[in-house]
Structures are given as structure tokens and as C-alpha cells.
């Protein structure tokens, strides 16, 4: 039996940014470019997601599910085109939510589940 591996642990906020459990990888709190345009924040979040996946030998093509959090759900209209550019046809299942963020400059965050093929 394999162990659960937790990476990028933040003791102050009590969370792990990457959790590997079996063939699945859970990635949280992907956001970047705070205060910039929604397009830059979506791309920045996917940059962070991609960087975290690369640390464990995976790519965006490994992502099977995403939760996309928006400050304003109307910004959802930007998401599809950016996913088409970034995921090269390997689109994950996804949900979008409108939520409040802890800081005013945050407009987008993504959490994801990836699958590690054997």
C-alpha cells in the first residue's frame, strides 16, 4: 500500500497545496497575478497548476477535474478559450462557482484533481 504524500505544506493555514493519494493528485489554491485582468489571473492560476504538476512529473493533460472559483461569475466567458489554448484538447470535467475571496484583488482561483497513469 502506498502512502499519502503531502507537498507544499502551509502550517499557518493548515493545508497542503499538493496531495498525492494513490493514482490521484489533489491540487489547491492555484492563483496568480492578483489585481490584474481576469485573463491574466486565469492564465496565472493555470501557470501555478502546471508548475505544481511538473514538480511531481505530470502536466495539465493529467487534470481530470477542476473547480473554478470566480469573484464574478460573468467572467466565466473568458475561461473556455483559455482552456482550449492551455489543455490541448484534453479538457477536464469542471465546475464554476462565484465566491468571495479573502483579498479584493483576487478574481480567480482553481483547484484540481489529476490522474497519474501507471
From TrEMBL:
Protein name from the UniProt record: Translation initiation inhibitor
Enumerate the Pfam families for this protein: Ribonuc_L-PSP
| Gene3D superfamilies linked to this entry | RutC-like
Q: Sorted alphabetically, which InterPro entries does this protein's record hold?
A: RutC-like_sf (IPR035959), YjgF/YER057c/UK114 (IPR006175)
The membrane spanning regions, by residue number, are none
Amino acid at each position: 500500500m502506498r502512502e499519502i504524500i503531502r507537498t507544499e505544506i502551509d502550517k499557518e493555514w493548515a493545508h497542503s497545496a499538493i496531495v498525492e493519494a494513490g493514482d490521484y493528485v489533489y491540487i489547491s489554491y492555484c492563483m496568480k497575478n492578483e489585481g490584474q485582468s481576469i485573463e491574466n489571473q486565469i492564465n496565472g492560476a493555470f501557470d501555478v497548476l502546471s508548475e505544481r504538476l511538473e514538480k511531481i512529473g505530470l502536466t495539465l493533460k493529467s487534470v481530470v477535474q477542476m473547480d473554478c472559483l470566480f469573484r464574478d461569475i460573468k467572467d466565466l466567458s473568458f475561461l473556455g478559450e483559455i482552456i482550449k489554448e492551455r489543455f490541448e484538447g484534453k479538457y477536464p470535467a469542471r465546475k464554476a462557482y462565484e465566491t468571495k475571496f479573502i483579498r479584493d484583488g483576487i478574481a480567480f482561483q482553481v483547484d484540481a484533481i489529476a490522474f497519474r497513469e501507471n
